[in-house]
Amino acid sequence: MVRFDVFTLFPGMFDGPLGDSIVSRAVRAGLVSWQAHNIRDYATDKHHVTDDLPYGGGGGMVMKAEPLVRAVESVVEDRGSPDVEVLLLTPQGDRLSQALARRLSNRRRLALICGRYEGVDERVPQLLEARPVSIGDYVLSGGELAAMVLIEVVARLVPGVLGDPDATFEDSHSEGLLEYPHYTRPAEFGGISAPDVLLSGNHAQVYRWRRQQSLRRTLLRRPDMLDRARLDDADRDYLAELRRNLDEESQR
Ligand code: ADE
After folding, report:
1. Is 85 helix (H, G, I), strand (E, B) or coil?
2. Which domains does the chain have, with CATH numbers?
3. Closest CA to 39 of 61, 13, 65
4. Are 235 and 242 in contact (CB under 8 A)?
5. What pLDDT sits at residue 165?
6. Ligand 1 pocket member 139 (CB < 6 A)
7. Whose CB has fewer CB within 10 Å in the chain, the N or C terminal residue?
8. Digit-coded pLDDT (tens) for 7-46
9. For strand 62-63 and strand 51-52, is the pairing parallel, antiparallel, or unpaired?
10. pLDDT of residue 166
11. Does the beta carbon of 215 sit less than 6 angstroms from any atom of ligand 1?
12. Residue with CA nearest ligand 1 atom 4
């Protein structure tokens, strides 16, 4: 069971994406739970102000420390516990990867802080010992979409959430390789046939073909991943052959 508490100025954004499909099924099965908390509710002034001008000048607004720290401290009362982690979604964070998601899926509770505007007062991550997490090298208007991505990625890894454990295992990125191409009926469509080997019923050959396709895709699309992938001798031989062929092609 993993519990997600999200701190945001836009709690309504979460209902749609998290209210359908895998996450909602996981919630109904009692494997995951989540709640979006409105940071404004924790601002004590009359107008519930959550942002202010940056010290030192410059454009934009900064999210105030006080309401955010109060929100997280009142909701996540077990914050000091080793299986609880506070995360701040920001483009400046550690990049979210399948490996980081796997580590996070072992926590009992995750608090996700969604920044808006120019950013969050620096004392928020400092006081809450929040880990900064980014979902990629681009800038969103706030951390909300990033938090939803993180919840979906982590929820899928909670035992029992996906029916077939093999399905997660073989997914793209689980083993550090991209996934092989998929085909389903009909055998021919648009003048293109599904590969014969997949219709052959020969499991060893199917396995080998898929593995080689994974290696090929990864080499062509994400060669950086091969440095970290788990490869055996047959994989390395196949990659060496592929590289030779590609070199020859490029010289022609
Ligand atoms: N907030 C704005 N951009 C973001 C990103 N790329 N990742 C996480 N949080 C963000």
Report:
1. strand
2. 2-155 (3.40.1280.10), 188-251 (1.10.1270.20)
3. 65
4. no
5. 67
6. yes
7. C
8. 999 999 999 999 998 999 999 999 999 999 999 999 999 9
9. antiparallel
10. 62
11. no
12. 91
Return the residue whose CA atom lies nearest to atom 5 of ligand 1. Answer: 91
Structure tokens at 16: 């749609």
The response to whether residue 96 sits with its C-beta less than 6 Å from ligand 1 reads no
Q: Is 156 a catalytic residue?
A: yes
- State residue 110's pLDDT score: 98
Q: How is residue 1 annotated by DSSP?
A: -
Q: Whose CA is nearest to atom 6 of ligand 1?
A: 91
Which residue is listed with tokens 């019923």?
Answer: 201
How far is Cα of residue 173 from the mean position of the Cα atoms in its chain? 11
CA of 117 to the centre of ligand 1 (A): 11
Cβ 120 under 6 angstroms from ligand 1: no
Q: Which portions of the chain are predicted below pLDDT 50?
A: none
- Extract the tokens encoding 207: 């396995």
